[in-house]
Amino acid sequence: MSKWVKIFGGIAVLLVAVVVAGVAILSTLDFNEYKGLIAEEAKKATGRDLVIAGDLNLEISLNPALAVDGVTFANADWGSRPDMVRIDRFAAEVSLIPLLSGQVVVNRLLVEGVDLLAETDKNGVGNWEFSGAKPAESEPAESGGAATLPSVDQVVMKDIRVTYKDGVSGQEYRVALDEMTAAAGSIGTPVTMALKGSLNEKPFTVEGTLGSVAQMASQNGVYPIDIKAQAFNVDTTYKGTLGTPGGNLAVNGDIKLSIPSITKTLADVASVVPDLVAPKLGADTVELSTKLAFDGKSAKLNGLSLSVGKTDIAGSVTANIGGSKPIIDAALTSNLIDVDELLPPSEESAAPAEPAPPPADGRVFPKDPLPLDGLKAADVDLTFNGKKIIVQGNEIDNFSIKLSLKGGNLNVDPLAATVVGTTIGGRVALDGSKATPTLAAKLSAAGLDYGELLKQRGLTDIAQGKLDANIDISGGGGSVRALMAGLNGSVFVKTENGKIDSSALNIASSDVL
Length: 513
What we know:
By secondary structure, the protein is of the alpha+beta class.
């Protein structure tokens, strides 16, 4: 027994001696001697100069650490500055014991003070396109199994600056990461992350948890996400899953979005995208929440709740984008849609409009072709029920439609609404799939108070009374002129005890006379 103890003891002493000797040898090496070799190999591969101004340091322990300071990489000859990349410091600390079993465990990875410039010339050639010699092709090595992923416990990035200059358009984008941290206990545990930075000096933040590195690296993996982000005065949260099963992007989770001020958000976005033409909206707040499911071919929004100012919409939307054209199915409801708040009149439209010049050929209706190609862009099934809609001061209650659009053939049946206490109903069909488009409409109203209708628009003392109307018309034509010329059917309007201001009648009838 004592013999084996002595043998194993001797082996242990020998191993310790070898480790000590190895550490001693590594400790005496000056790794700065290899800076020239590293720069030479970089030159061969890229045709550009790599300079390591600082020291290459290796600390030997159970957690060896490698650090390098002051690295620069040359830009293209035509570049706007000498260096494409500047790195103040790069450091990595690795656990030694796991290496004995083939597992790479990085305790901490630090990248600090990075200044990266990506730019193109006037021909669109990027400075990341290198002119160095291509590496010689070699036969692929036989794989003995799946490669073992390294485990990174913590990543810290500070003072990262990335600039993109488009030599064709002249636009410039600047991304800054003031600080980013990502940490995980192991390759199989969730990653906690937090970052703050800016895009063209507009700040943004992101924080939350992601799936494990093993899940994210898996080709068919689906991993959980729970993040909060703020950018351009927009708060966004997402809690669900993300992945690429079968090679297709898959998303399934709850999304919430909040915009306290649309005006400020559009102004911030316009400062980054100068060509953006922002619409002028009266409403200034947006709140959105929905459950999103996307499998690469179809997207579903369930439990949709959207409010823009006083306007609200709820329901569900499904869009299938896997075919030759989108197929959309939506069922929506609303308590209020205030069009006047969403799209207030501009200063130009608020001013009295100049009379339109008479048509050159003296006809009333234009002969320009009807823009009906958009009807063929998608197939749509839509049901909508709204309690109140406000348009140009008029209130429309209990508005409901069922819309079907197939192959350019649009059908709205039924259509119903209540205007100043009167129910208006009917159906409309516009078939744009034919060589000559056709229109058919059937509408009816009984006891419509047109005096009250005018009052809602701020026009008082012009007219008063009620009317009954029945419209049943159809026709065909490729322009408004052809369509109106081809209309046939009946229009019946009856009013009793009505009154109209004579001056208003003179104005309204002047063109007719």
